[in-house]
Amino acid sequence: MYTVEYDLLSEEQTKKYLERIGLSYPQPLVPETLDTLIYAHQCTVPFENIDTRILHCPVSLSSQDLYRKIVEERHGGFCFELNGLFLLLLRSLGFDAYACVCRVAAGFTTLRALTHRASIVRLNGKEYLCDVGLGGPMAPFAVEISPLPQTKKGETYRVTDTGDGWKMLLRQETSQTEKPVIIFALLPFLAEDFTPLMDALLERPDNLFSNHLVINLRTSEGYKNFRDDILIWRTGEGRKEIRYAPRDIPDMIRDIFGLDYDTDLLFQNTTALGSSV
């Protein structure tokens, strides 16, 4: 039997991380805390790929680099980054958690490569799927690994078996329909396992993160979704769409998504990209 080991944040780092998402230290080890952590994270730390699309700088998955980027510099990231650091938060708070590998299923009818990661928490004899880094609709709570529908914050999810050893997260769209979100395995992965998966993804010429600027953030009323040059802001039943010129994108990144990037540096790069941003 092998043990799966991960880094831990210091107590001070854990406190600062919780402050970053608007919460206090410590947190009780109960399912409700998982829900609180996930929702606060999704509403505070954007899914974004500014490093790879605009700044063209390398992405590191080391624990301290992730902590510096997301907590100290108040940036966001994509799934390998956000869920990577979130796992450390869970474990540093005392949760029995491990990393799992996933395939994105939303919007696809064929099996996709391993391009996503999430976390599994074992608590009180149950297992929960926790995800704060999917660039699209994701459960705003910890989803128990169960075929029974679970509804919180107006959204319903459940987990089913695929029949070939994988699990599938399903999101209820209407009272009669549900759609797949991700496919995942209940097998622990090490932090180091995700670097080659991320590198392989970024080396593909058609990969999303090098070819499109994407920033997503949950809000208490809906979502803010930015892609290339269009912001779609959903508030309850309302929806507004705003197109941005390249020169205006740096201010939008700061004002709409609260990301603390060097605005002058972003301006230089977004204007260079021109209409292809």
Helical stretch tally:
9
How confident is the prediction overall: mean pLDDT? 94
Main beta sheet: strand number and arrangement?
Answer: 8 strands, antiparallel
Calculate the terminal CA-CA distance, rounded to whole Å.
49 Å
Strand content: 25-35%
Radius of gyration: 18 Å
Strand order in space, largest sheet: 5-4-3-2-9-8-7-6
How many distinct beta strands? 13
Query: Percent of residues in helical segments?
Result: 25-40%
* Coarse shape: globular
Given the helix and strand composition, which structural class is it? alpha+beta
Give the topology string: H per helix, E per strand: HHEHHHEEEEEEEEHHEEEEHH
Low-confidence segments, ≥5 residues, pLDDT <50?
none
Defining key terms:
277 residues; alpha+beta; eight-stranded antiparallel β-sheet; five-stranded antiparallel β-sheet; 31% helix; globular
